[in-house]
Design goal:
This protein is α/β, with parallel strands linked by helices and 669 residues long. Helix content is 41%, strand content 16%. Bound molecules: thiamine diphosphate. The site of thiamine diphosphate has 15 residues, from β4 and β6.
Amino acid sequence: MKIKETSFQPDIEFDRTDFNDGQLLAFYRELLKPRLIEEKMLVLLRQGKISKWFSGIGQEAISIGVTLSLQKDEYILPMHRNLGVFTAREIPLYRLFSQWQGKASGFTKGRDRSFHFGTQEYKIVGMISHLGPQLGVADGIALAHRLQKEQKITAVFTGEGGTSEGDFHEALNIASVWQLPVMFCVENNGYGLSTPTSQQYNCENIADRAVGYGMESHIIDGNNILEVYGKVSRLAESMRKDPRPVLLEFKTFRMRGHEEASGTKYVPNDLMQQWAIKDPVDNFREFLLAEKMLSENLDNQYKAEIKQEIDEDLKKANAEAGIDFNETEELNDVYQEFHYEEFTHSEETEELRFIDAVSQGLRQSMQRHENLVLMGQDIAEYGGVFKITENFVEEFGTERVRNTPICESGIVETAMGLSIKGMKAMVEMQFADFVSSGFNPVVNYLAKVHYRWNQQADVVIRMPCGAGVGAGPFHSQTNEAWFTKTPGLKVIYPAFPYDAKGLLNTAFNDPNPVLFFEHKALYRSIRQQVPKDYYTLPFGKAALLREGRDVTVISFGAAVHWALETLDAHPNIDADLLDLRSLQPLDTEAIFSSVKKTGKVIILQEDSVFGGIGSDIAAMIAQECFEALDASVIRVGSLETPIPFSKALEEGYLPKKRFEEKILELLKY
Ligand SMILES: Cc1ncc(C[n+]2csc(CCOP(=O)(O)OP(=O)(O)O)c2C)c(N)n1
């Protein structure tokens, strides 16, 4: 882009005091590279050789300045306009091209597009499309640095549009409360898609928000590489020594459409011109030429070298064969491989309530895994609302048992960040209902990250759930079906203290994200002899609680106890009773073999019927056991209403009585 004749002035002053010639020329080369790659991409786009492009032209000084300010082993979490982060980290270009073409030398085996990937090799953690979640992930990485006593910082990018998301607020607040060394880099480029800043936020500068979080902030001219590098590298140095979050607002402009096809019609011409003359690459070149550091010859030589690298690497990527579909590989990569290790226990047992078994499992897992961090609202000194972590602070300290602000999304994201740094995390939802406030990172980040770029999400989310406690629509849900639907998550739902402890221990050994459901009504009502030692139980194995010939009852959670009561009340019913314990993975073998034996099946779940896991189990049985069935598969669940508060209404809502009616009906069929 050439600087045009206009009345506007670039208004960029390059202060070279702190830099020698070599550094200045190196900055220039670094700036040129993403610019020239983009120019090539725009040509390929016009030729129909690539499908989509998000341009960062005009914003290169920010990516380059920030990346060069960080040490190579410090994590950067870039966005869709930060090509310079990838080039400055020296990722071979053919790998980037291959990534954009969905080929194997990219970073996602063709499973995700553009910059949506991470790489531990280059310490880059790419965005998910939802923009905001990575801000909280940066908190987790920074927390891990602090806990591991490493003097490192983490840089995370967002556009000004992304700052309107709750994730931004939550991440900044967490970082400030915990004094995490995160550099929050806001690239304020004037528009979020077509929305101008005046419709995005109503304060003068985004940096002004920092004061509300008790955080330091700076405004930086994002088109001036020397200002970016100078200020950011000084801040980085200071943050390493004195860990704290800093909010940086880079003023810049998006010179092309949101993505190429969408154009820039909505941007006033004057505004475009004003920023065109502030181009970060052209202005720096003019400066270097004027200072006689750069000659036209040297400039041309740089460009020729970079273009040659681009052409050669593009050729290599183009020559690479496309990815073939391999169903087994696709399915295998959804979860990280986990070799279950069985820890057996001695004979010594004690009678524990469900809640004590959970607490004991948690404590023993904390003793076993020094890298396990617990996070949740009121879980530290207060011990959690159900007292599961009572006295944990005394044993493990407040670094590992962390009270969090009320921000489910941000904390799930923080847990993800801890996992990226090789730690384990548990998030206690105060009530399972509140997971809806953290839903996005669970189903879109944790669930998909291994499939996308082979990164584990070693996170257990504990979910105190369920009705029967007169707690109304927002403290009673059993929302396992929100998660069993999503590939990439494991979903565990014990009904007994012994299972709860053993399965929870396994959840912490398993590097995959686990949603661990604990029914509140069982916490203090169900007791069992439980081994005192640490032990594990395998996922995906149902328990056959009763054996019979006439009917199979399939259930999980509190409903298992309703089924037991009903069967006790009707000793003439000769039933197999399967307690699933684990919903994902699901023990289909146990289900099918029981149904094939009895020929009749009734599935009892606490959740309302439609869309619950019982419906899928029913469909699987119909498909697999059709010829063995003597009656249609019966599903029993709660009413299709929210969960009411009053005792009589709640009793009517829950399926306990309907179960009794339906099983008797089924047996008569
Ligand atoms: C949660 C969510 N909502 C909407 C979108 C669609 N979207 C993608 S980028 C974008 C604009 C982002 O603006 P900004 O954060 O300022 O970044 P910029 O594109 O300007 O660099 C929008 C609306 C999305 N990806 N995710």
